[in-house]
Design goal:
The protein is an alpha+beta fold and 149 residues long. Helix content is 38%, strand content 30%. It has helices at residues 11-62, 97-101, and strands at residues 66-69, 75-81, 88-96, 104-108, 113-115, 126-132, 135-141, 147-148. The longest helix has 52 residues, at 11-62.
Length: 149
């Protein structure tokens, strides 16, 4: 022994650790991005369901018709029909689901979902599709106010 104690890591040891970390990240990052995208789509679908439940609740509480507008744009807004004036009024409920969750929303056959004073669908059944990339969730809204994924 020459009296010098060696401490620390060599350059080769540090390079090997950096390469191993790079390989692990290269394998896990694309998979993590898929998981995050799938979660955004699920959260957006849950937000659409919640807004529909709010619209039904408002319709039954006020004994009036409500509608959710803006399905194509992704900014979902609830309007209530004023029984006295016959005008549609903003109910105070609006959410930009598309921007908040970075998803696209489509509705068929209408851009609006209507609910009558009994909480039932006013027009034919609607299907709301929420998607981002290959991940898609379809919400089928029946005339009876039920939502099925």
């Amino acid at each position: 022994m020459n009296g010098h104690s060696r401490r620390g890591f060599t350059l080769i040891e540090i390079a090997i650790v950096v390469v191993l970390i790079g390989v692990v990240l290269a394998i896990t990052l694309p998979r993590a991005a898929d998981i995050f995208r799938r979660q955004r789509v699920q959260n957006a679908a849950a937000a659409v369901e919640n807004i529909y439940v709010k619209a039904r609740t408002i319709a039954m509480q006020r004994s009036s018709y409500t509608r959710i507008a803006g399905l194509q744009s992704g900014v979902l807004t609830i309007y209530t029909l004023n029984p006295v004036t016959g005008a549609w009024e903003f109910s105070g409920q609006s959410e930009d689901v598309a921007s908040r969750y970075s998803v696209s929303i489509n509705s068929a056959p209408y851009d609006q979902i209507w609910v009558n004073h009994l909480g039932l669908g006013y027009y034919a059944e609607d299907t709301v599709t929420v998607w981002s990339g290959p991940d898609t969730i379809s919400l089928k809204i029946s005339r009876y106010g039920r939502i099925q994924r």
